[in-house]
Amino acid sequence: MLNKRSDYFNERLWLEYREGIMRSELDENLKKAIKSQEKQRVATLRLINAAIKDRDIAVRSEENTEGVSDDEIILILSNMVKQRKQSIVQYEEGGRIELAEREREEIKIIQEFLPNQLTEEEIKVEVSKIIDAGDQLSIKDMGKIMGELKNKFSGSMDFGKASEIVKALLK
User: Fold this and answer.
1) Burial class of 16 by CB neighbour count within 10 A (0 to 12, 13 to 18, 19+)
2) DSSP letter at 139?
3) pLDDT by residue (tens digit) across 85-130?
């Protein structure tokens, strides 16, 4: 039977072990940015960590004590990029070019941690494969196709572009 002290240390070791690669990569980059005094990079990496911790808290339950996975972190980062792109449009419409530039810098930093995005041609090839493999021949099947794409390419595909390509190929 283990005492409370050894239980604590075993749990602590497990928590350190289960931490995903993404988290350690983000932490390493944050440390480097702090040492090299890159203010924008430090601020962006802290925002990323805050978003991940926020999501960890939201999913914490009796069954899930380990927080979000690397796949979920990729989704968080993708959403952060999407939010910043929307902000850029609003800032440019409002004449706040300096804030739009700041958002662009944040996007560049966030995208360093995302998988490489598929090109438009690669998206067309993948959509064609799905259409050819199944009976999805009408626009009514768009949801099935998009669902399959999201399962296969979560975090590495711009689904806005993908939906346009699916529509064009199904017409």
Assistant:
1) exposed
2) G
3) 999 999 999 999 999 999 999 999 999 888 888 888 888 888 888 8
Q: Identify whether the C-beta of residue 103 lies closer than 8 Å to the C-beta of residue 84.
A: yes
Could you tell me which of 84, 90, 99, 86 has the C-alpha nearest to residue 48? Answer: 84
Q: What is the pLDDT of residues 69-89, one digit of tens each?
A: 887 888 899 899 999 999 999
- Show the tokens assigned to 14: 């497990």
95: left (phi over 0), alpha (psi -120 to 50) or beta: left
Which residue type occupies 121? Answer: E
Residues in the chain: 171
Q: Is the dihedral of CA 68, 71, 74, 76 positive or negative?
A: negative
Q: For 136, how many CA atoms within 13 A lie in the half-sphere containing its CB?
A: 22
Q: What are phi and psi of 2, to 5 degrees?
A: -90, 145
What is the token pair recorded at 103? 């958002």
